[in-house]
Amino acid sequence: MNKKKVFVLLPDGVGLRNFAYSNFYEIGKNFHDIVFWNNTPFDLSELNYPEIKFEKPILHPFTDVFKNGVIQASLTKNSKIEKDQVYDTYRFKSKTVGLKNKIKNTVVSFLNSNYSNQKSILSLRNRINKLERSTTYYKDCRATLEREKPDFVFCTNQRPVVAIAPLLAAKDLKIPTATFIFSWDNLPKATMVVQTDFYFVWSQHMKNELLHYHPEIQENQIKITGTPQFESHYDDNNFIEREVFFKIHNLDTNKKYICYSGDDITTCPDDEVYLNDVAKAVSELNRNGHNLGIIFRRSPVDFSTRYDSVLKEFKNIIVPINPDWRKIGEGWNTILPTPNDNSLLVNTIRHSELVINLGSSMVFDFAIFNKPCLYINYDVENKKDKNWSVKKIYQFVHFRSMTSKEAVGWISDSQSIASVIEKNLSKKQNIEATKWFEKITCQPANLASDRIWKSINSII
């Protein structure tokens, strides 16, 4: 059988875990010649992966402004159509310092006010395509494709603006293209930046979302595959025995540990206060006969010192096991995972009794191992940001996919933390959490890479 050549486009580092650190390459190389078209700082040749690096891609000066216009106009469109103000909560504050930023904001505001309907949004996308086709970056991408002659270009993330030019070049050369929808919460947030021939989604639920938010996309363009995000949880090669894991991370083998999974400072400005409340509750439980500790896994993009005082005060209870990510630059998307973090995450889950966090997808990671997740659901006193509230978090569209409120345990105030933990310590399985996980991603969850490659095969 003649192998086809598949370019796997990595426009930024968020796709590394799914497509470079999973079984994706090993499965696909049996059928295809795979080349990573790599725009990350990581050298994939260290993993013996064929790669072609980008040479400092430079966008058209107006592309980013029009991209932001598309996002804002899409959120306004969705808000008007559905009469739902939740879409306004997805807007980020713009930089206002300097004349350049003020001009950008004025243009984006104009586009948002005048282009917030389906036809106008598509016209903005066409404008972006025209701008990008005029760049040296586009010409370089086209030259690479003409030289390498791939049969398919697969983009690992629909959000990065740097992915537009290489995908346009492929389409102009009649090379089929596809993009993977990276996360379970992406589509309501209007994060679809690229346009491709096909779209790979996690589930029927995500397919319905894609058709709802993007009526320009046809049903036959969508492939339901699941996500490789969870595949490492099923791989015995990642598992480390309890005694070994505890020794490596200086954990007490006489204790049972709960995991506190941190959020970034934007999602949860008062996360260190919640950790403090949980540590106090664990102290209370230990006084009443339990022997518990806390494994603190901070958000991979949070390198702040805001937890330091809590970690110091409760050093006999809290053991930080930081994600194995590297900070390459200043932006959140330049903080990238290493291959080792898969094993670190998996074993943190396996050797914890449950997880506590504020509305993260860790509920699914723990559901795979039949372990409970507790969602924090109260505001602290003296909030840093008076406009922030947990009520806003749980109103986000992706939480409406929850099959039942019983999928998680709810912590409604700091005084109830101890009792909610104690109630859930003995739970061996949460059927509702499993149902939610099965709705969110195609099952079996460990075969996502296989389904992605079968979909690619069906296309080429």
UniProtKB/TrEMBL annotation:
**Out of the domains of life, which is the source?**
Bacteria
Q: Where is the Diacylglycerol glucosyltransferase N-terminal domain?
A: 70-228
InterPro entries, alphabetized: Diacylglyc_glucosyltr_N (IPR009695), TagF_C (IPR043148)
Keywords tagged on the record: Transferase
Any one Gene Ontology BP term: glycolipid biosynthetic process
Checking Pfam families in the record gives: MGDG_synth
Q: What is one GO cellular-component annotation here? A: membrane
Gene3D superfamilies (alphabetical): 3.40.50.12580
One example of the protein's molecular function in GO is: hexosyltransferase activity
Protein name per UniProt: UDP-glycosyltransferase
The species is Flavobacterium tibetense
Q: What is the lineage of its organism?
A: Bacteria, Pseudomonadati, Bacteroidota, Flavobacteriia, Flavobacteriales
